[in-house]
Amino acid sequence: MTAGTAAELLAEARARLADAPRERLGELQEGRRLLGIPRPARIAPRGTAWHLGVLLLTDDAVLSTGDIVRSRAEVRRGFAAESQRRRAELAAAAARGGVPEGEVVHIGWEVVDLERMSERSTPLAVRAGQTLVRWSAAGGYLPLARYLHERIELLQHPPERA
């Protein structure tokens, strides 16, 4: 990939990803009460995106990733930790929302405003005129062009048994 503005780099990435698989986007909708009876939460579909590490790329936007859930039917289990219980609830909510069992859905993602990138609110930042991506909370910044190139290669040619 060549150096350029974030919008140019993302447009180039979309062209390279045209035939690559996408993953579902969803929005958690907490259950409402119906005649006083609480209804369980579900994950409503909100489109698809290419998953590129800390970024989700759609046809017309770039999003920062949130939680990733694999859909599965609700099963009553005992849990050693509250976090396990919450993950199981989200997986069941995905199934209730129509996500086929075993498929991945992204929730809690946020739209990245390319005009107002800041270090605190997005994984993207501009320093010295170069667009950078912070690939983890503890990690440093990489040039966006290099990051996209590496992530697209991984998506198109996953490692064996990945």
Reconstruct the topology from this structure:
Elements: H1 6-16, E1 23-29, E2 33-34, E3 37-38, E4 42-52, E5 55-57, E6 62-64, E7 67-70, H2 82-96, E8 104-107, E9 110-111, E10 124-127, E11 130-134, E12 141-143, H3 144-156
Helix pairs in contact: 1-3
Number of domains: 1
How many angstroms separate the termini? Answer: 25 Å
- The proportion of strand residues reads 25-35%
Percent helix:
10-25%
For this structure, the quaternary state is single chain
What are the secondary-structure elements, in order, as H or E? HEEEEEEEHEEEEEH
Order of strands across the biggest sheet? 7-8-1-4-5-6-9
Annotation, overall tally of beta strands: 12
- Give the overall shape: elongated
Uncertain stretches of 5 or more adjacent residues: none
- How large, in whole angstroms, is the Cα Rg? 18 Å
Arithmetic mean of pLDDT: 87
Main structural class: alpha+beta
Biggest pleated-sheet summary: 7 strands, mixed
| SS summary, helix count | 3
What this model shows, in words?
The protein is α+β, with helices and mostly antiparallel strands and 162 residues long. It has one domain. It is 24% helix and 31% strand. The protein has helices spanning 6-16, 82-96, 144-156, and strands at 23-29, 33-34, 37-38, 42-52, 55-57, 62-64, 67-70, 104-107, 110-111, 124-127, 130-134, 141-143. The strands form three sheets. Strands 7-8-1-4-5-6-9 form a seven-stranded mixed β-sheet. Strands 10-11-12 form a three-stranded antiparallel β-sheet. α1 (6-16) runs parallel beside α3. The longest helix is centred in the middle third of the chain and has 15 residues, at 82-96. The chain starts with 5 loop residues before the first helix and ends in a 6-residue tail after the last helix.
